[in-house]
Design a protein that fits this description.
Number of strands: 23
Strand content: 35-45%
Largest sheet: 6 strands, mixed
Distance between the termini: 41 Å
Number of helices: 2
Helix content: under 10%
């Protein structure tokens, strides 16, 4: 059975940006109410006075990465960045399966890992986190394991997450609670009987693993991303549904935020998976225009070098039923002060 994944691949440079903020704020246009022990916050306008909102700095405080130059400065599929207590910077460069270490001025120091299945290597580096004393934790979705490194990049140990067997999920997001336990959102496509062409809804499971990855609890089950499947005699063509639902999650201390992405709504759960708060912005999603569709197809095809494959993917994308609206957001981030972005 054939399966083809279409994605847009871009070359990334790391930009560490400083955020400036104004101290004066006014009361938010938000309505707060409780429903079945869940606090609901409905926002109808921004909190800042006009012209006083937070802004990213016009120039980065540090720029690491180059399209041309030494290989240690060429970044591809960056999935995580950490600043250590001594101001060194660690970048999880998934394209090469490496953890790269730079000093506070952005000069390359060393690297660890590499592509492979051996100890300290990665087949699908997806996330980078930190325990106490700058101990590093990296998640490899394809090998279904977490690997531990000391602050200098020396490999310490790894553990396979058997709960993700028998095969790696199609999508994951990872976060770490304050006690060192991991939240892993594992998405799978469930289908029974004859698989027909059309839009399919995946399911995402939130699993909480103890700090050593040995035991886990299922703390949530939610609608996952949407895919489009074209079934034919030779197998299946599977692509993400353009502008389809893209769930996102972000862990902070002893809880996590989760949003389906198909509306301006984000829920907050405890580490045990109990819904505690629902945050909403009262505005409609943007409409998907004909120009949006053309631009999506064009950029998707730019990433494919093989001409025969390009023709197959182009015919597939042209026939996909695009949603009427775009996702509400592409990512959730939490800063050091606990603000949700």
């Amino acid at each position: 059975m054939a399966q083809r994944l279409c994605y847009v691949s871009v070359s990334l440079a790391l930009w560490l940006l400083c955020v400036g903020c104004q101290p004066e704020v006014e009361r938010s246009s938000a309505a707060v109410r409780d429903s079945a022990e869940v606090r609901i916050v409905e926002n109808s306008a921004h909190e800042w006075p006009a012209g006083r909102g937070w802004r990213l700095a016009s120039r980065p405080t540090l720029d690491i990465g180059a399209s041309e130059g030494g290989p240690d400065y060429q970044l591809f599929q960056v999935v995580g960045v950490l600043r250590l207590s001594d101001n060194r910077i660690v970048i999880a460069n998934s394209g090469t399966g490496e953890l790269r270490f730079y000093d506070s001025s952005g000069q390359f120091i060393s690297k660890a890992g590499g592509k492979g299945g051996g100890p300290g290597e990665f087949q699908g580096l997806r996330w980078l986190g930190r325990l106490r004393a700058d101990t590093l934790v990296a998640f490899d979705w394809q090998n279904r394991r977490i690997s531990i490194f000391d602050p200098d990049g020396n490999f310490v140990r790894s553990v396979t997450l058997e709960a993700l067997a028998p095969a790696p999920p199609s999508h994951v997001h990872v976060g770490m609670f304050v006690d060192g336990s991991l939240l892993i959102g594992a998405q799978r496509l469930f289908a029974s009987g004859t698989i027909r062409s059309g839009v399919h809804d995946d399911t995402i499971f939130h699993l909480r693993f103890d700090p050593r990855g040995a035991t886990y609890d299922t703390v949530g089950r939610h609608p996952g991303a949407q895919s489009y499947i074209l079934a034919h005699d030779e197998g299946l063509e599977v692509v993400p549904l353009p502008f389809g639902r893209r769930p996102r999650a972000a862990v902070y201390r002893d809880g996590y935020y989760f949003g389906r992405g198909d509306s301006y709504a984000i829920d907050h759960y405890s580490a045990a998976g109990e819904l505690e708060r629902s945050i909403r912005w009262l505005r409609p999603n943007e409409r998907v225009t004909a120009a949006d569709k053309d631009r999506y197809i064009e950029r998707s095809l730019e990433a494919i070098d093989d001409e025969a494959e390009r023709r197959v993917i182009e015919s597939l994308l042209v026939g996909i039923p695009f949603p009427e609206t775009t996702p509400a957001y592409a990512k959730l981030c939490i800063d050091s002060q606990g603000y949700l972005w």
